[in-house]
Amino acid sequence: MSEKLDLNVIRQQITELDQELLVLFAKRRALTLNVAKSKVQQVRPIRDKQREQELLISLIKRGKDLGLDAHYVTSIFQSIIEDSVLNQQAYLQSLANPDIQVPTVSVAFLGDKGSYSYLASHRYFSRRAEKIVEHGCQSFADILQQVESGQVDYGMLPIENTSSGSINEVYDLLQHTNLSIVGEITQPIEHCLLTAVNTSLDKIKTIYAHGQPIAQCSNFLDKQRDIRIEYCDSTADAMAQVAELQSDSIAVVGSEEGGHLYQLHALEQSIANQNENHSRFILVARKAVDVAEQIPAKTALILSTGQKAGALVECLLVLKEKGINMCKLESRPIQGRPWEEMFYIDVEANLKNFALQEAISVMAEHTNFIKVLGCYPIEHISPTNVPSSEI
Ligand SMILES: O=C(O)C(=O)C[C@]1(C(=O)O)C=C[C@@H](O)C=C1
Prior knowledge:
The protein is of the alpha/beta class and about 400 residues long. Among the domains are: about 100 residues, Periplasmic binding protein-like II (D-Maltodextrin-Binding Protein, domain 2), CATH 3.40.190.10; about 80 residues, Periplasmic binding protein-like II (D-Maltodextrin-Binding Protein, domain 2, 3-Layer(aba) Sandwich); about 80 residues, Alpha-Beta Plaits. It is built from 12 helices and 15 strands. The strands form 3 sheets. Strands 1, 2, 3, 4, 5 and 11 form a 6-stranded mixed β-sheet that branches. A hairpin with a 3-residue loop joins strand 3 and strand 4. The longest helix is centred in the first third of the chain and has 36 residues. The protein binds prephenic acid. Catalyzes the Claisen rearrangement of chorismate to prephenate and the decarboxylation/dehydration of prephenate to phenylpyruvate.
């Protein structure tokens, strides 16, 4: 007869082990902060992909001895290294910009508690401030106005989504603001159908949602033929209304994490058209930041060329000649000037970089307007892969 296993006892052992793991994670974090300090002294870049690869290979080997498979070990340590790089970057940025180092920050974002912008704001500042004073806004214009007028320190704005593309309204507002882009964050968007009470999909008559999630979940929503869609100002607004109504025939499109703040539960998970659904957010402030040279930086430019033939090509050729990588090109109409376009260009370079400064001054000869929207650390940490022969 096999030995009787007490579930509660085993769970207690797992909990204790997980607590020990947390202590080890914290110790590792403290060590990586010392690494950052030593890199400041030696002026070395934060990222060292060769070291990451050697570390991963040795951990995969050790993991195999312990019966852990290579993919499991790789994904755990890629996430630990990502955290380490982001923490080190945040530390260097605090040294380069001592005035942004404050315990409490105020942030304006779209919607209330639980909106994707709320989640992005909390994630971004989790390694930078002790406390966030939240300012939920009803529109993107309202967010910019709050920062411009000094009512808040920062504004968090979604700029593009992997499924529905660029957020035109935000691009258009950037044409007229004096604010600077000082940071970015990519937030996974995991749309679920949430309800306030226990129910089933066949009982749902109305779905509340914001326009962006509606576009991103169009395949799922188109299949729900008899369900009415109620457009809301934001995801948080939609969740608050559904929580208030407490009905078994009403659901809302939102994140499970955000829904928890309103006691909502997931009826259906992963309802977005694309499984890999991410939104990139930008953070704006009144004052531009300096990006430490050991950190990969992105610079955002905005320019117009009038209707001069070939002027945009000339600008892009300048970037090519200077060896500067362009990672985004977007165009938007200019209000009041039919058929003229405003171009938004993101390049992977630090504004302090001489080549970029030269490129901007040559580009100015081909444009009738050019402005730097901001220079900020690249927050996307591409994982270091291990050669398949090592797996
Ligand atoms: O060893 C370093 O240089 C570190 O910065 C630490 C670390 C890590 O967390 O292991 C993080 C970033 C580097 O790309 C390599 C490794």
